[in-house]
Task: inverse folding
């Protein structure tokens, strides 16, 4: 198995600015659970002064959410995320990736497994809300329930007047290729549909390319480097047929991963195509906010926007989703404290690090409940499920949806889709 | 016999004379002479009294030798661009300020009393009304030279405004009444004299003025001084709230209107020369009575502190009282016996308010100690610290009620 | 090595997961904010409550095992390092803000409260905690107390010691004491003043009563750039002499500007300048501060400023400041290791000393960055280098010593805000004579007769006269 070298840590001067940005450090106060502490561990590994079998070394590196909140606050530009992936790949050589993570990775990577399993989940989903709760199983049902189509909440708005902006003509429409992913395809097809509709309503020709699949983020983050490379190669090949179009991504985690393909496939024959693909990736909020977003119907909703870490920290996209939401008439944006903090989802982390994940989530849930929104918006499937399950576990009925869904409700009520 | 020894150590000029209590008074002219005297005193088991200009703490302590700082006088080093002065502890505080004013500089400190020496101000840590805007004595000191009770010369701190090298012996020595040693010189941080300096006065009842002062603070402004004076302190018939505004002309003008609005009362403005007289005379009246006490309260519990003082010490309401509304410090000057002060000290300690005897006759100081309400544990530390500076108890400074 | 029975007692006191003794975990506690110094502790304990902390100290005292307090580990003097026979007592979990008393402008906090979090909690009352070390988003109030931390705004508002009113402390023998009163008036000699800045050698503060300061409502930040570093130093002297009390006066030299502008914290500092000078003026009245700003602008011009930017809106000011506050981290880009100096010189000596520091850099062919609190004369000449190059490391060491000697000869001192720790201990005899060091040593023994609190720091044992 190939593992990339652990690099990007040299500029660290141990200043500690990352500490207070780190959700796990805030949860434990333990330097070993901080970015700076983990950098020490990674450096020791790279130098060979510690080995992967050293007790507690893997333990603390496993506990990293990979939220990358430490990167934007780093004055020395330490490439924490890159080093973490390399480190996890190295650890995976001497110790198997946790079973739960391996199972999730296997399912997501392989369409033949994914389809029936997620299909089964969809069958259970209508009763998931009843079973949601605090226990492990209850939490899982809460996550499943959070994947439901949010449409029923959108009907709270009143239909009064039609929007003024006419639909743009489709003749000169730029094309956007939708990245479908794995879990987004299986459990969030309604978000894909909403993405397609809202892009179309804003003058994009939205299409899908065949043969694409899971982005490989879960694999890269858990140390299955080779598998991540395989998946990346497949996607690079799939998207190479339409080299001119931008790639629209509505999952922050996938977007961040796709933007890393150039680095992931460094030295690979497909590297040039991978670099090109990375440059074509856009979050759907960027596509919509880059031009004047078409204004839909008034929605009298208080919205709390919770930025996904892989959008805010990894991709450094802060304003576009807010601008998109703010463009909807009648929306009131409410602020909740520590919005930039991770929710504790982090891919399969919520399954492998249940305790710490829930501790981190607790702050998020408390902050959201204090802000008292009608709906929470966040652009990543893991976050929707995690926050949704967290709210359900404490008996809150605040729904969690993708921002694009709210725009979609507004458009639907405005009658854009009746034309 | 002691006198002869002094002569032999310092020469004829080192002995000033014999005071009315029959105690020889020595006046060392340098750190080394001071150290020599204290080493000798320590080995001979003499007790030593420290005296400055004698205007603050009376020269009435029993001792085998009086050590005067009068020849440790004058500015040792003044650096106007650095705004730092090193000055002998025997220097007159007023003369120091006058001399600094030639360079448009000052130390924003206005200790009560008059004719005091620099050493007295520092050793007793008597900050006046300007503490509101500029801090206590400790906030102006950069360093000092301390000749310890066993005759070692300790040079604490330095002449730069920031210094964290080693332990802050400067702060330990300031305000400890000389219990650890004699302060022979101090390094003080200077400021440029503010371009504008305005004093506003309002008169009325104590409670009304206290409310007004709190109104000013809650508006976010912190004047240079915000002091509430008793009628006797201002030689008048009513309580007086005095506000001093310092800074640029624009800032003082802005504060002047903000203060009136926040206090919701009318102030009268004093002419510059009247203002100078007002502050000087009011502060000088502290020493009209034999004892001065300092009570540390929270700003919100000043009413309680003032009530306690009125109840225990000032039943006839004719004592000198000043309350610093920002720092929460009340200063009282008057004539009260040991028992009444002790009772107030106990009552105050119960409310977390330390009572310090800043000055008073030896009978009061020796019986009660300058402090004397140490909390559990701290007393052991304080005496152990003193023991490390003055192992043979040469310096006759009653810190607390010692047995 | 910490004996197993001690580890067991510690685990019983704080819970087994809060006692760290695995090699990998101790690795993360082997350095503070100055990674050129490194020492693997025997164990690290992270108590979660005050009573747990007391138990930990009592256990360690009982077994005569040294304890070293550590906050967020952002100190720059190697002060929070423990050797293998000592236990690191980590205070990050003691992070509760116990009281905000807005009426009296006071707060009571546990030692692990992060500096900016205290200011954030005071903000709704129009107050803030004034001392602002550059590490303030990470460092703890307890650490600030130990080091008597400073920061850019201490020029006007004073350093940590000017803002600490009272302390509850646990002595090395486990005794709990209250020092000072909430009013700030002491019960006796100023033990609070003595404790602040004692670098963890007197014990550990368990509760800290601090002053809060009204947050100024009117602020102007000026950024002037100069062809020569020397001119910037002269501008500082003329501003202070004119009677202004700026909230801050900061200088970044050419190399620092380059490092900042190459980092993600680029603030738009002109990269061809010899130095930039940041001046901040604040107050409660817009017109008054505006007037002061224009007068300072005139002074900057006559001192030879090439251009002057004036920012009043928060976003722009924040940007001008950001580069300064993150300068230290930005230097990480220049070399894998960093020596951080903290010497202070009299303000009037700044121009000469800066020239001579430049010469020292040239003499040893090393890359020096100067970023400093110019109003206080507090210099931070930083040297980025690669420790694996022994020749370079030696040149850096010698240059550092030369710089320190130069500053002392100019009438200054070895540390203005970072503390002595292990890093500057060998310089102590250069600033203090044997009697003074002896007095410090005796004070230490009053607090800690068995030398169990942060031993081997601050005072070089052999230079003290008993």
Result:
């Amino acid at each position: 198995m190939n593992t990339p070298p652990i690099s990007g840590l040299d500029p660290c001067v141990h200043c500690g600015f990352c500490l207070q940005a780190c959700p796990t450090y805030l949860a434990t106060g333990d330097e070993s659970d901080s970015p700076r502490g983990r950098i020490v561990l990674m450096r020791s590994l790279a130098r060979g002064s510690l080995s992967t079998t050293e007790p507690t070394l893997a333990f603390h590196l496993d506990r990293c959410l990979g939220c990358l909140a430490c990167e934007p606050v780093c004055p020395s530009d330490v490439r924490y995320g890159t080093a973490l992936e390399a480190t996890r790949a190295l650890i995976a050589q001497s110790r198997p990736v946790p079973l739960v993570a391996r199972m999730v990775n296997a399912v997501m990577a392989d369409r033949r497994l994914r389809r029936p399993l997620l299909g089964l989940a969809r069958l259970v989903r209508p009763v998931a809300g009843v079973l949601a709760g605090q226990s492990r199983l209850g939490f899982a049902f809460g996550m499943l329930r959070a994947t439901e189509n949010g449409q029923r909440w959108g009907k709270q708005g009143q239909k009064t007047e039609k929007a003024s902006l006419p639909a743009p003509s489709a003749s000169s429409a730029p094309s956007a290729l939708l990245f479908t992913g794995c879990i987004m395809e299986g459990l969030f097809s309604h978000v894909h549909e909403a993405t397609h509709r809202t892009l179309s309503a804003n003058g994009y020709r939205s299409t899908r390319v065949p043969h694409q699949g899971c982005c490989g983020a879960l694999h890269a983050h858990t140390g299955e480097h080779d598998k991540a490379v395989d998946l990346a190669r497949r996607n690079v090949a799939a998207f190479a047929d339409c080299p001119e179009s931008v790639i629209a991504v509505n999952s922050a985690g996938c977007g961040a991963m796709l933007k890393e393909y150039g680095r992931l496939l460094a030295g690979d024959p497909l590297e040039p195509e991978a670099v090109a693909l990375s440059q074509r990736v856009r979050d759907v909020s960027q596509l919509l906010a880059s031009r004047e977003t078409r204004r839909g119907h008034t929605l009298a909703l208080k919205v709390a926007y919770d930025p996904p870490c892989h959008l805010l920290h990894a991709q450094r996209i802060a304003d576009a989703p807010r601008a998109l939401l703010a463009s909807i008439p009648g929306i009131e944006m409410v602020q909740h404290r520590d919005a930039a903090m991770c929710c504790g989802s982090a891919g399969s982390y919520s399954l492998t690090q249940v305790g710490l994940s829930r501790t981190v989530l607790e702050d998020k849930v408390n902050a959201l409940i204090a802000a008292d929104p009608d709906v929470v918006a966040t652009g990543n499937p893991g976050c929707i499920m995690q926050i949704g399950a967290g709210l359900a576990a404490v008996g809150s009925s605040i729904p969690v949806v993708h921002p694009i869904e709210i725009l979609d409700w507004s458009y639907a009520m405005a009658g854009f889709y009746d034309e | 016999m002691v006198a002869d020894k002094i002569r032999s150590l310092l020469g004829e000029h080192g002995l000033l004379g014999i005071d009315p209590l029959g105690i020889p008074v020595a006046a060392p002219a340098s750190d080394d002479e001071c150290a020599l005297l204290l080493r000798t005193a320590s080995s001979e088991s003499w007790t030593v009294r420290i005296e400055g200009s004698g205007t603050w703490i009376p020269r009435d302590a029993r001792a085998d030798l009086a050590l005067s700082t009068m020849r440790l006088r004058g500015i040792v080093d003044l650096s106007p661009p650095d705004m730092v002065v090193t000055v002998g502890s025997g220097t007159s505080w007023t003369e120091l300020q006058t001399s600094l004013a030639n360079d448009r500089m000052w130390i924003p400190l206005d200790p009560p009393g008059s004719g005091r020496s620099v050493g007295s101000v520092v050793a007793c840590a008597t900050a006046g009304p300007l503490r509101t805007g500029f801090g206590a004595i400790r906030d102006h000191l950069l360093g000092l030279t301390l000749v310890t009770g066993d005759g070692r010369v300790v040079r604490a701190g330095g002449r730069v405004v920031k210094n964290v090298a080693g332990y802050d012996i400067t702060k330990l020595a300031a305000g400890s009444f000389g219990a650890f040693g004699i302060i022979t010189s101090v390094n003080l941080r200077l400021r440029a004299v503010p371009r504008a300096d305005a004093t506003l006065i309002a008169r009325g009842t104590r409670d009304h003025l206290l409310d007004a002062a709190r109104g000013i603070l809650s508006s976010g402004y912190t004047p240079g001084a915000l002091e509430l004076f008793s009628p006797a302190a201002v030689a008048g018939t009513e309580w007086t709230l005095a506000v001093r505004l310092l800074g640029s002309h624009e800032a003082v003008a802005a504060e002047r209107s903000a203060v009136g609005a926040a206090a919701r009362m009318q102030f009268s403005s004093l002419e510059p020369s009247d203002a100078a007289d007002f502050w000087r005379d009011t502060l000088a009246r502290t020493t009209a009575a034999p004892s001065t006490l300092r009570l540390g309260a929270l700003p919100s519990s000043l009413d309680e502190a003032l009530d306690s003082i009125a109840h225990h010490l000032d039943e006839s309401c004719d004592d000198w009282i000043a309350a610093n509304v920002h720092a929460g410090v009340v200063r009282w000057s008057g004539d009260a016996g040991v028992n009444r002060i002790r009772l107030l000290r106990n009552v105050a300690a119960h409310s977390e308010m330390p009572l310090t005897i800043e000055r008073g006759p030896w009978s009061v100081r020796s019986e009660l100690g300058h402090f004397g309400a140490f909390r559990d544990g701290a007393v052991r530390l304080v005496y152990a610290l003193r023991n490390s500076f003055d192992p043979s108890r040469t310096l006759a400074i009653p810190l607390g009620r010692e047995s | 090595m910490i004996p197993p029975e001690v580890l067991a007692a510690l685990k019983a006191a704080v819970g087994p997961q809060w006692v760290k003794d695995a090699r990998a975990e101790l690795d993360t506690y082997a350095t503070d904010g100055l990674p050129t110094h490194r020492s693997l502790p025997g164990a690290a304990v992270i108590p979660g409550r005050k009573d747990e902390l007391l138990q930990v100290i009592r256990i360690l005292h009982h077994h005569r095992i040294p304890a070293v307090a550590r906050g967020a580990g952002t100190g720059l003097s190697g002060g929070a390092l423990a050797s293998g026979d000592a236990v690191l007592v980590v205070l990050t979990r003691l992070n509760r803000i116990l009281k905000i008393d807005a009426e009296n402008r006071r707060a009571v906090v546990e030692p692990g409260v992060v500096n900016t979090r205290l200011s954030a909690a005071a903000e709704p009352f129009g107050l803030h905690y004034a001392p602002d070390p550059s590490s303030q988003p990470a460092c703890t109030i307890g650490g600030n107390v130990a080091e008597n931390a400073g920061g850019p705004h201490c020029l006007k508002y004073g350093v940590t010691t000017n803002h600490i009113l009272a302390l509850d402390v646990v002595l090395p023998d486990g005794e709990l004491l209250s020092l000072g009163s909430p009013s700030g008036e002491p019960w006796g000699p100023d033990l609070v003043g003595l404790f602040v800045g004692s670098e963890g050698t007197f014990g550990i503060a368990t509760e800290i009563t601090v002053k809060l300061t009204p947050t100024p409502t009117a602020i102007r930040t000026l950024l002037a750039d100069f062809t020569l570093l020397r001119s910037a130093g002269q501008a500082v002297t003329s501003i202070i002499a004119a009677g202004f009390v700026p909230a801050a006066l900061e200088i970044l030299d050419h190399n620092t500007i380059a490092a900042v502008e190459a980092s993600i914290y680029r603030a738009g500092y002109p990269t061809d300048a010899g130095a930039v000078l940041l001046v901040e003026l604040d107050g409660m009245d817009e017109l008054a501060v505006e007037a002061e700003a224009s007068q300072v602008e005139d002074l900057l011009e006559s001192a030879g400023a090439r251009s002057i930017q004036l920012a009043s809106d928060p976003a722009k000011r924040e940007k001008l400041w950001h580069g300064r506050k993150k300068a230290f981290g930005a230097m990480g880009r220049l070399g894998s290791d960093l020596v951080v100096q903290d010497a202070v010189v009299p303000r009037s000596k700044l121009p000469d000393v800066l020239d001579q520091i430049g010469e020292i850099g040239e003499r040893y062919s090393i890359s020096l960055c100067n970023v400093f609190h110019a109003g206080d004369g507090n210099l931070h000449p930083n040297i980025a280098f690669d420790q694996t190059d022994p020749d370079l490391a030696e040149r850096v060491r010698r240059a550092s010593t030369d710089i320190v000697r130069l500053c002392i000869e100019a009438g200054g001192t070895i540390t203005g805000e970072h503390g002595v720790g292990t890093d500057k201990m060998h310089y102590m005899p250069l600033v203090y004579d044997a009697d003074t060091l002896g007095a410090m040593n005796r004070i230490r023994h009053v607090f800690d007769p068995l030398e169990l609190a942060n031993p081997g720091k601050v005072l070089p044992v052999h230079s003290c006269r008993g």
In short: Chain B has a mean pLDDT of 95. The longest strand of chain B covers residues 181-189. Chain B has four domains: 2-68, 75-192, 196-284, 289-368.
